[in-house]
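Support reply, case 0932

Customer input (verbatim):
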Amino acid sequence: MAAAKGVVVFSTFMLFSILFHCSGVHARRPAIYRVGDGFGWSPTTSMEVWPQGKKFYAGDILVFKYDDQLYNVVVDDKEGHDTCTVSEKSVTYDSGNDRIELVYGHNYFICGNPDDCQAGMKMVVYAEAPPPLH
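Our regenerated output:
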């Protein structure tokens, strides 16, 4: 009797495993974007324009490539973005090759040097909630 019960449990497990696998349920892999495309994070690229036409989701990765002797990337809030100021809550990256995961909602980025920020090294990226699993 115990052997028959074990066969039923095993068969049920296998059936659900096959159904789950065949149902197409899978998690979306995060997209990876190089900020500024070939130009990178620099004042030569209009950073406010770069996100336009792209669809971002929470969990996607932005890669910031830049000269770490000249620039940095600051994850800021709306006020810091709008005024080109770094607040106590801001997070500064300065490796020259930074990978930053987007959170749901507005993500604000600036260069910590106010002159570079005011010259256009700042952007807002809106990340939608990840699409539902299929």
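We compared this against your earlier run and they match. Two observations from our side: Strands lie at 32-34, 56-57, 61-65, 73-76, 91-93, 97-101, 105-110, 122-128. The helical segments are 2-22, 78-83, 114-118. Please reopen the case if you see a mismatch on your end.
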